[in-house]
Specification:
The complex is a heterodimer. Chain A is mainly alpha-helical. Helix content of chain A is about 80%, strand content about 0%.
């Protein structure tokens, strides 16, 4: 009756309901939690992936763990276990094949991906496997269980703590390998640690986005944040925030437009990057503001990096 | 015994699959050598996957699928070029982003606009057993174009290929030969999609050339060996997939990966360590 008497109240009530409605169901609440977890981990780690130019490694790890996911379904063990084993095998294969003479690392990575992905597809189409393995490819954010969420939360915590501990090391090595070594940094350690973290983050995110779309959260929000911030810690916070926001927008889209959830989340992340890029270009053309964009390895300015390292607490969040 | 071996190849749809492998071999083998030489493996993986939404669109609206694939791959190549213009790095992040964006678009088109259903699996993983006459013609045309383009631009591509610094920044120097190479990879990638699927185009575009590279340094023998390997892995893979009732593209991918691993072991044993 209030609605009839006060159209403005009815209108705002309607909007409020449209905003709140999706989250009344358990499925959507768990989806929200999963999106928040993968957003925070993917966004923060993504800044390092973009900084170290590891996008191809991130993508290939996600693709190459497909046989692990299929085996998990075939054997009836938790998906995260299969993902973990799959990632470990993929990383090992990339490390071994990467030593092949005369061909570049990218090429050997491509060989590993196609072989392992082929294996996964053959397993997925074997008579024993249940039909409809598309949720492995594109994610099933609406089918996340509580156990999955707790496991993912644990892994996410490990990644975030490791990022905190390794921060100085990663920054020094990423900025300049040679001078990092002379300052006591260890480039090899940083590289391996980063790959392990990428593997863990992939395992966290695969539930929601599937192994074909996982790279969206590992690269998209970080690349967007990099357009807006030059300093590492604000960039990581911004990327995590953007990732979670894009995830929520994607879930709304999926709820109201009925689109595939994983693809909606991934698409929103890519779109937000393209929007930021367009805004950046317009701003540059207008002549105002500083020229921002991909600055290569110079994204963290030398003076800043080393002053923060020497003072010890300058840039830590 | 021998007759049993040939039996699958008597089936008309298997013959057409075999024809597709042959038609693709020149294009895939030649482009493969350039991809390996120039370090463009990620790009060729991405451009194949990016053709996916175009094929979904073609299926939904009812126009020729090769056209959709090619248009989609060219949009990807052009978009990447436009976005990366003037940037010195971040090329790999851009590739990954545009790639996953195209993938998400394809998924939404397939599942929510056209309700393509099981066609999606065929598009993602390909099926040499469902090849049409159009697909074979398209593959043959791609091979012919590749042959002439390699003849015309090969010298330039070779020169830039041996300068690693230039190869790293590829795509950022908008010279004509580089653009031609990127478009050529898009063309052959779109053609290979129908044989081995959007995600596995590297099976034909990268793996055979990488395997041949282990044994030869000179361009011509390398090119010939790559073309031969495409056939030598494609035909038995096709046969194996019919015999085991497995998807052909994925079977070829496994086989090619296994051959590469074997060749790597042989190379390491005979070569005495790793010549780095």
């Amino acid at each position: 009756m209030w609605d009839a008497a006060y159209p403005a109240v009815a209108f705002s009530n309607g909007i409020w309901r449209a905003i709140v409605d999706p989250w009344t169901e358990g499925i959507m609440q768990r989806a929200l939690a999963e999106v928040a977890l993968l957003g925070v981990v993917g966004g923060a780690l993504g800044c390092w992936i973009v900084f170290y130019e590891l996008s191809y490694s991130a993508e290939s790890l996600a693709h190459a763990m497909f046989p692990g996911l299929v085996m998990a379904v075939l054997l009836g063990v938790p998906l995260l276990l299969g993902a973990g084993v799959g990632v470990a095998v993929a990383a090992l294969a990339i490390a071994v094949f990467g030593r092949a003479p005369r061909i570049g690392k990218d090429t050997s990575v491509a060989v590993v991906i196609s072989a392992l992905f082929g294996l996964g597809v053959v397993l997925a189409f074997s008579p024993e496997s249940p039909s409809g393995l598309q949720h492995l490819l594109f994610g099933d954010v609406l089918g996340v269980s509580n156990l999955d969420l707790w496991t993912a939360a644990g892994l996410a915590a490990v990644v975030l703590v490791a990022l905190r501990l390794l921060h100085g090391q990663l920054l020094a090595v990423g900025f300049d390998r040679e001078s990092a070594r002379s300052l006591g940094g260890r480039p090899g350690l940083a590289d391996v640690a980063l790959l392990v973290l990428v593997a863990l983050a992939t395992v966290v995110a695969v539930q929601g986005l599937g192994n074909l779309l996982v790279v969206a959260v590992l690269v998209g929000p970080a690349a967007t944040a990099r357009l807006l911030s030059r300093r590492m810690v604000p960039m990581m916070a911004l990327a995590a925030l953007l990732a979670v926001l894009a995830g929520i927008v994607g879930l709304y889209l999926s709820y109201y437009a009925g689109t595939a959830a994983g693809a909606s989340v991934a698409g929103t992340m890519v779109l937000s990057y393209l929007l930021a890029l367009a805004a950046d270009a317009i701003q540059k053309r207008a002549g105002g503001g500083r020229a921002i964009g991909f600055r290569g390895r110079g994204v963290v300015s030398g003076a800043y990096t080393f002053s923060s390292r020497s003072s010890g607490d300058g840039e830590d969040a | 015994m021998l007759e049993e071996l040939y039996e699958p190849f008597a089936l008309p749809f298997v013959q057409r699959g075999l024809l597709e492998v042959l038609a693709l071999s020149v294009g895939a083998g030649l482009v493969g050598t350039w991809v390996v030489l120039r370090g463009l493996a990620f790009y060729s993986h991405a451009v194949g996957t990016a053709a996916f939404p175009g094929v979904v669109l073609a299926g939904g609206l009812g126009f020729a699928a090769p056209l959709g694939a090619l248009a989609s791959a060219v949009v990807f190549a052009g978009g990447l070029e436009r976005l990366s213009r003037g940037r010195r790095s971040g090329y790999d992040s851009l590739t990954a982003l545009v790639l996953v964006g195209m993938m998400a678009l394809g998924v939404i088109l397939a599942s929510d606009v056209f309700f393509s259903g099981s066609d999606v699996d065929t598009l993602l993983f390909g099926s040499l057993l469902l090849i049409g006459r159009d697909d074979v013609s398209f593959a043959a045309a791609a091979s012919v174009v590749t042959f002439f383009a390699s003849y015309l631009f090969g010298r330039v591509w070779l020169a830039t290929g041996f300068d690693p610094a230039a190869a790293r920044s590829l795509g950022l120097r908008s010279a004509v030969p580089d653009a031609v190479l990127l478009l050529l990879i898009a063309l052959v990638g779109a053609a290979a999609l129908f044989a081995v699927g959007a995600i596995l185009v590297t099976t034909l575009l990268v793996v055979p050339a990488a395997t041949a590279r282990l044994f030869t340094r000179r361009l011509l023998p390398w090119q010939i060996a790559s073309i031969a390997l495409v056939v030598a892995e494609g035909a038995p893979g096709l046969w194996l997939s019919v015999a085991t009732n497995a998807p052909p593209g994925a079977t070829i991918a496994m086989l090619a990966g296994g051959v590469f691993a074997l060749c790597l072991v042989v190379r390491l044993l005979t070569g005495g360590g790793l010549p780095r």
